[in-house]
Amino acid sequence: MIPAQKPFIIPLFLPHAGCPHHCIFCNQKTLHPESGKRDLSMLRRERDRWLAFPRDFQRPVELAFFGGNFLGLPPGELEACMELVQEVPGAGLRFSTRPDTVNRASLERFRASGLHVTAELGIQSLDERVLRLSARGHGVDAVVAAFKALKQAGIRVGAQMMTGLPGASASSDLETAAGLVALGPDFARVSPALVLKGSGLAKLYARGRFRPLEFSEAVERTAAYVNILEKGGVPVVRIGLQADTHLEESLLAGPHHPSLGEWVRGRILGDAVLEAFGRMGGKRAGQPLRIRVSSHLRSRMQGMERSNVSRFEKAFFPAPFSIVTEKNQGPDFWIIEYAGGLFKDPA
């Protein structure tokens, strides 16, 4: 059963724990160096530190094991992690894991525990060539099988995805997005590939054999990707990696920005306005335009660094336009107003 409220998530990091492969984009030990040693007492202290924070005690608690391959842990370590969850009354379990380590024994263990479980599958791509070039060690068939097994076990499934990996193109990334919709995850996280110190991508980058996406390219591609997912009913809960000191220190190259999510969300909204504008056809020839938008969406309509304003000026020229805030409208309200009436793409 899915909790009615958004859970209070306690992140516990297990860098590379249980991973049978070193994927080309990954170096979790540089992102979470303080978690390099998997010591139960350290994990328990970290859990208790989070539990001591001021919070809404009506929210359910989830212990989330990230950074490794949870279902690839040795049985004793897996049981120890389960105990950390069961020591907190009513707590749920969340973990990241590889698709090819989802197995019947683990799923039976979860069912017997009675815990609310969320599995985040590290999928990254549904393109066989991209998976191979990324040294994932499994194919798309393993992803499909993992989804089937988890859903049959009644486990909530998230998908961790990446754009701009070696061998990926704009079209192949968007085909992956469409394929993911067909698999039906409960949510997704999407991030452009970054070059981290000590990773396989760092070696390819140094040799000139890999070029990460430029920032503008990453925003455009990721926006199209996220739009496909959310129009297909898959909510995207995070865009880009969480910004912190370790990431900044380990980043060699790539389209990282602490507000990447807002860049992408602004791009999606701008794309929707321009699509609606294109559907207006002859109705708008040279006429002044006003984009009426809710207070909630005003800054996103303008875009980060007024990026949408620049796009609108180019698309609407020579017609003048303005963005007008509507304070009494719902949070998602926007519409284009012109001399002949109002227009918004019904999609």
UniProtKB/TrEMBL annotation:
Listed GO CC annotations: cytoplasm
Any one biological process term the GO annotation gives: tRNA wobble base 5-methoxycarbonylmethyl-2-thiouridinylation
Highest taxon listed in the record's lineage: Bacteria
Single Gene Ontology MF annotation: metal ion binding
Any Pfam family hit: Radical_SAM_C
InterPro entries given in the database record: ELP3 (IPR039661), Elp3/MiaA/NifB-like_rSAM (IPR006638), Radical_SAM_C (IPR032432), rSAM (IPR007197), rSAM_horseshoe (IPR023404), rSAM_sf (IPR058240)
Names of required cofactors: [4Fe-4S] cluster
Alphabetical keyword list: 4Fe-4S, Iron, Iron-sulfur, Metal-binding, S-adenosyl-L-methionine
Domain Radical SAM core: 5-235
Keyword Iron-sulfur among record annotations: yes
SMART domains: Elp3 (SM00729)
Protein name per Swiss-Prot or TrEMBL: Radical SAM family protein
